[in-house]
Write a structure and sequence with these properties.
By secondary structure, this protein is an alpha+beta fold. It is built from 3 helices and 10 strands. Strands 1, 2, 3, 4, 5, 6, 7, 8, 9 and 10 form a 10-stranded mixed beta sheet that branches.
């Protein structure tokens, strides 16, 4: 070049190593210093292997995780928890074993549930017939199922302990509630 500035703003001369635009002051190499991504990947893999040997994931838990992942299909809607009496209600003094009230919502459906020591009861709104599966952790058999009446009400003597969720099957939709701990 003849010494005039090119489009990159350089005067047309290459740096000391023949790399265009490299001025040799070392600032261009700082992006490569401290790049530990390969070392981090190796460390992460070593930790995964150690965890797999020292604290393996139980087979039933892994199966439950796979089944939970498959629930996120195109046909299943997730009902969002909008009310939980443990969080939103004002405690009543002297009340012992007060029922837990839960409300789940989708755009088209509301499910009100009362969890007591005697079981579950609730209502699907708008009122409609539905089959409700009570999911609770790893199960070797099919989950217990409740059915609603023509007013959308349901009840069952199911003692829910630990994490649980409900899967509702209506004529039009399949709705899954969030997982909660009883």
């Amino acid at each position: 070049m003849d010494g005039t500035a090119d489009m990159n703003g350089t005067n047309g001369s290459d740096g000391p190593n023949g790399i265009e635009g490299f001025d040799g002051d070392g600032d261009d190499l700082t992006q490569f210093e401290g790049d530990d991504s390969l070392e981090n990947d190796l460390l992460e893999e070593m930790l995964r292997q150690a965890a797999a040997i020292l604290d393996p994931v139980p087979a039933q838990l892994q199966q439950t995780a796979v089944e939970a992942y498959t629930l996120y299909s195109l046909d299943t809607q997730l009902a969002e928890l909008t009310f939980d009496s443990l969080v939103h209600a004002i405690p009543v003094r002297g009340a012992v074993d007060a029922p837990r009230m839960l409300t789940f919502r989708t755009d088209e459906l509301t499910v009100d549930i009362e969890v007591t020591a005697h079981g579950l009861m609730g209502q699907v709104l708008p009122p409609q017939e539905a089959r409700i599966e009570v999911l609770s952790g790893p199960q070797l058999t099919s989950p217990p199922t409740l059915t609603t009446d023509d007013m959308g009400r349901f009840t069952g003597e199911l003692h829910v302990t630990g994490p649980f969720a409900l899967r509702l099957r209506t004529d039009a939709d399949v709705v899954m509630t969030e997982w909660l701990r009883a």
